[in-house]
Amino acid sequence: MIDVVTDKNARRCLFGTDDKHLDDLLYEGSINHNVKMAIQHGVDPITAIQMASFSAAECYGLQNKGAIAPGYDADFLLLTDLTQVEIEEVYSAGKIIAQNGKYLDQDGYEVKPGQSLLSSIKMEEVTSEQLQIQLEESNSAHVIEIIPNSLVTKHLVEKVEVINKCFQPSIERDQLKLAVIERHHRTGHIGLGIVKGLGMQKGALATTIAHDSHNIITAGTNDKDMLFAIETIKKMGGGLVIVESEKVIASLALPIAGLISGEPAEKVYSELLKLKKGLKFIEASKEFNPFLTLSFLALPVIPDLKLTDMGLFDVKKFTHIQYKLKIH
């Protein structure tokens, strides 16, 4: 949307980042990356920096932030290159806290979450029978198609493979099984669907990052690996996992509410690198981040078709629908 920014409206424009994984933050940065991209697209450097600082502070009512002036908090940084946004030093409340890419304040603090946050996976064992998508009347079904690097999905109706009146994932058709399992209140709710576009050739993925309810969401080429992924996530207390032939290929534990790690950033980053290798191993799509995409397939407020623990959700009609077609 950067092309809509002009000298006249830049004061009403600001940057934001959301759902960036740790490796993205370490490799690219956060708002500083937005500033750099804006400059590369022709925005004046001062205007881009203003959008990242004063415009943002003004928008959110942070009256003592966003500018270097009397009455403002002494939060600022020094750049060695304005157009490349190369940060030399960072100051917070007048104190230098980072220099040449290194964090200087070593005091830190220990994360001590309460027990309720460490026991957020509240669910019974999931069985193979509960993962069956029955298509007794037809071999046509509603399918969620991924649009690479987009939160929007397509709502397709396609012929699918059916054996013993149940949907069978097909690698050739890129039609995989998708499941969302409620994990907060032991309701036993499990939503099932069919997803197209992940490109996986084997195994299964599972994660407890599934916006906005953050239930367990899993996609796979077969039921055994999906069940193993679900059970692994449960034992981990939440996180991300890749499995194949009922073996863990890579995982990242997020035991704090199933969303946060208490480990140092360096360790989390190394686990994320292993997950990237795991995604290559199961030959998932390289066009987008499969885990990030998977997490948004459970968000029933963005068109067209999504999956909740209560089933398929048609966002345009704003109602749940059956995964099978009705025969008239």
Rg, Cα atoms, Å:
23 Å
Portion of residues in helices? Answer: 10-25%
Strand content is 25-35%
> How many angstroms separate the termini?
45 Å
Low-confidence stretches: none
Sketch the topology as an H/E string, one letter per element.
HHHHEEEEHEEEEEEEEHEEHHEEE
- Biggest beta sheet attributes: 8 strands, mixed
Secondary structural class:
alpha+beta
Continuous helix count: 8
Commentary on this structure:
With 328 residues, the protein is of the alpha+beta class. It folds into two domains: 2-103, no CATH class; 118-321, no CATH class. The chain has eight helices and 17 strands. The strands form four sheets. It has an eight-stranded mixed sheet with strand order 6-5-10-9-12-11-13-14, with helices on both faces. Strands 1-2-3-4 form a four-stranded antiparallel sheet, with no helix packed on it. Strand 13 (239-244) and strand 14 (247-253) form a beta hairpin. Helix 2 runs antiparallel to helix 3 (45-52). The radius of gyration is 23 Å and the shape is globular. The model has no long low-confidence stretch (mean pLDDT 93).
What's a concise summary of this model?
The protein has 328 residues and is of the alpha+beta class. It folds into 2 domains: 2-103, no CATH class; 118-321, no CATH class. It has helices spanning 22-27, 31-40, 45-52, 54-59, 115-118, 223-236, 265-281, 290-296, and strands at 76-81, 86-92, 95-99, 102-103, 140-146, 153-159, 162-163, 166-167, 175-181, 190-196, 204-207, 216-220, 239-244, 247-253, 305-308, 311-314, 319-321.
